[in-house]
Amino acid sequence: MAVQALWLDVRSYCYEAGITRPWATLAAIVAVALTTLSVYRLFFHPLAHVPGPFLARLTGLWRSAKYAGGKWHEDIVAIHERYGRVVRIAPNEVSIVDEWAMKNLYGHGHNAQKTPWYSVWDPPRTAPQLFSELDKKAHGFLRKRVSSAYSMSSILKYETFIQRCLDLLLEKLRLHSQRGPVDMSEWTNAFAFDVVGELGYGSDLGMLKTETDVNGLRKNIFTVFKILSNMGYFPGQMWLIQNPLTDAILKLLGIEPPMVDFQQWTLKQVQQRLDHIDEVDREDMLQHFCRMENANKEPVRLGEVVIEAMNLIGAGADTTSIGMRSCLFYVASNPDCYRRLQQEVDMFYKDNNLDGPLPYLLSQKMPYLQAVIKEATRILPSIVYQLVRHTPPAFVVRGIPIPEGTVVGISPIAQNRDKDIWGEDANEFRPDRWLEDEAKAKRFDTSSMTFGGNGPRMCIGRNIALVEMHKFLGQFIRNFDFEIANKDQPWDIHTYWFAFQKDLFMKLKPRDTNSLRAT
């Protein structure tokens, strides 16, 4: 009745105003509806009391436009600096910077539920996957059955595979350093992808050997992240992309969906391993995935093994190479840090009579190396978008009540710049903050969102990233002197869920490690 009455009122108003044509009447109705909706969202919505950009309070398109612009790593920090710790970035979404909120949204034992945004990462024709699983019980089962493969003890068993890729990377860099500046964004990415190939597919992906983006995999994954990370707020999500009609249209246009080749290649690799599972004496992550069981203690379906192998790319490739590039950039941009780190590594090699590879466990005896990696990945974490959840009941942040069911999230980069935690110099790269006070360092470890926090949803590929980054940075600074080639524009960052850094060109000068051993 209320809708009918409103319709009659609008028609009456249009008639009196001389608006008699159907399209004009429709336009007037739309205008009235939009005005009413705008007034509601600005003044009467349950989040009307939460500050935020004017357009963000009116429409989610503001947030989506910012996401599409690829500069969210800058936008979200600036937004919180202007509007405070609790900011409305869409009509029903709030971004938060707060230590208590982080622990209560993502920590163990808390009941904040993931939102349907994550469903965009759950392709309809594969199998349930860890990242996009909304049900806590199902997520716990999926994580548990692969957790041992991602454990630090397991990753250290695979360290030989990682070192094999790193040796090839250093060899390639020595060669290319003689030809001019080297694009470290490409080389670190190729290295990280080859490592996950070794761990999850039985061999490297050929990125370093061929010096190419094999099958366009890295480019396609960037495209997928760019599209999917911005589709999570739209109805239909993945179905809009992966359905028979879309596939047919793309085929007619001669366009291959970005991940089809990769999915088919993964299927082939997995099937080959399954066919010879009892003959393989190589212990790697793919071997673990092939031996998984479902909840009924039965062997998993082929699709479940395939999805875990593909998940490894998301958990261990770009996240790791982003961290490596951050380390290179911030070390090269800070001469004192550069000299101190190189001196620590050189002295450690000498004192421990090392020659060549740096084992991960030994790297943990170099405090400044650890501090540099923690600080570089704090100030520019690989994940930048909010990790969105639905608020639990009675959720109050800094005196601001947020209604149950509201979409809330914390951006790792905004949280990692919180001055209450990190001090007034939170926006500065300063590794010593991790070494000055043991109690503060422990708080930093539990407050950092470099790997998505410290709860049950923390990035499962964390240990892969840690091992690779420590081995890479320690051996890189041992083998090369380096500097940023273009100091006016050292790199270009495009944020689509991950903070993809491009065009990090560096001048490399190989060091004479033989003479270093003699000194």
UniProtKB/TrEMBL annotation:
Family matches, as CDD domains: CYP57A1-like
Positions contributing to heme binding: 459
Cofactor(s) essential for the protein: heme
Transmembrane segments: 23-43
Single GO MF annotation: monooxygenase activity
Record keywords: Heme, Iron, Membrane, Metal-binding, Transmembrane, Transmembrane helix
Domain of life according to the entry: Eukaryota
Matching Pfam families: p450
PANTHER family: CYTOCHROME P450, P450, PUTATIVE (EUROFUNG)-RELATED
Entry similarity comment: Belongs to the cytochrome P450 family.
Protein name in the entry: Cytochrome P450
Organism: Paraphoma chrysanthemicola
Lineage of the organism: Eukaryota, Fungi, Dikarya, Ascomycota, Pezizomycotina
